[in-house]
């Protein structure tokens, strides 16, 4: 039997390390198994773990409900490292979710303030953008903010370079809105740029982007298999169908893994630190303002206003930055209001219980 703390752990290629082994050690002594979630659907999940008898990696179907609650951000997600009770009946069950190192969290696709975790414990967020249609720079900025917020490193992948002739010009436009971020131009069909991409996907990666951006095709190319179903985009508007309907982790042949995610129609941010990193150029400009608390509106010697006037900072990018800041302020206020309401309900229930206990 192979110990979960062994240096030669079969899942080390998927990110299992000494820190996770130490985190899991008390659970291992209770007879639980460590594994990584590869897929979740309808209260069940597939967990990749080590068979205690053979010492080989295997996939186990498990119940997620024991660790699922009202707080959606902390519910199990694809990419999570978990503890599994293989003896639970009628189905093996998750008993704990280990601490995450990173997580891609967007605002839920509804009017409430909860977040939705797209992928956990990833090293790189691959932002897939199709060259078959004119890239939406504002959406790229939004995806970059989402990626930076996760704690992982973003990497922009311009796909379908085989169908365009001006890919390098488009790449220059994208690089202008992605300071400090690597931008690759690739074609999964011809293999162009794929070696460079493989060299940068050695850890755990997650693919995000719109439907039709070629995420499933990239996943298949990197994995060397036809794991993910692929459909053609609509020729009338170059928009894709939702081929991928759930998030799935696929191990890569050279080590590491990639998580393919469904196409994102809306990308609501759930936090604000990523915005500052996505717009690092504006942050750098602001350091040149005369006043530390400059609002960049009417103050004299404002470096941001000067850059807008001379064209160094495009008006479109500045408006995009302000829009994301407004959204983040709104989400923060909604989240704070929800937390205040939860505390008020908790206080009310405790007060009621105290009164009941002291009745004669």
Name the average pLDDT.
85
Estimate the strand proportion. 15-25%
Kindly state the number of beta strands.
Answer: 13
Q: Which residues form runs of ≥5 with pLDDT under 50?
A: 233-238, 350-360
- Please give the domain count: 3
Please give the largest β-sheet: 6 strands, mixed
CATH H-level name of the largest domain... which superfamily?
Answer: P-loop containing nucleotide triphosphate hydrolases
CATH class of the largest domain: Alpha Beta
Structural class: alpha/beta
Cofactor: Zn(2+)
InterPro entries: G_CP_dom, P-loop_NTPase, Ribosome_biogen_GTPase_RsgA, RsgA_GTPase_dom
Enzyme class: hydrolase
Binding site for Zn(2+): 289, 294, 296, 302
Report on this model:
- With 360 residues, this protein is an alpha/beta fold.
- The protein has three domains: 12-97, OB fold (Dihydrolipoamide Acetyltransferase, E2P), CATH 2.40.50; 103-260, Rossmann fold, CATH 3.40.50.300; 273-336, Ribonucleotide Reductase Protein R1, domain 1 (Orthogonal Bundle), CATH 1.10.40.
- The chain is built from nine helices and 13 strands.
- It has helices at residues 18-28, 137-150, 167-176, 194-199, 215-223, 273-278, 280-286, 303-310, 315-357, and strands at 33-41, 44-50, 57-63, 81-85, 93-97, 103-107, 115-120, 124-130, 153-159, 183-185, 204-208, 248-251, 257-260.
- The strands form three sheets. It has a six-stranded mixed sheet, sandwiched between helices. It has a five-stranded antiparallel sheet with strand order 3-2-1-4-5.
- Strand 4 and strand 5 (93-97) form a beta hairpin.
- The longest helix is centred in the C-terminal third of the chain and has 43 residues, at 315-357.
- The protein is globular and about 70 Å long.
- It starts with 17 loop residues before the first helix and ends with a helix.
- It is an enzyme of class 3 (hydrolase).
- Residues 340-360 are annotated as: Disordered.
- Residues 343-360 have a biased composition (Basic residues).
- Residues 120-265 form the EngC GTPase domain.
- Zn(2+) binds at residues 289, 294, 296, 302.
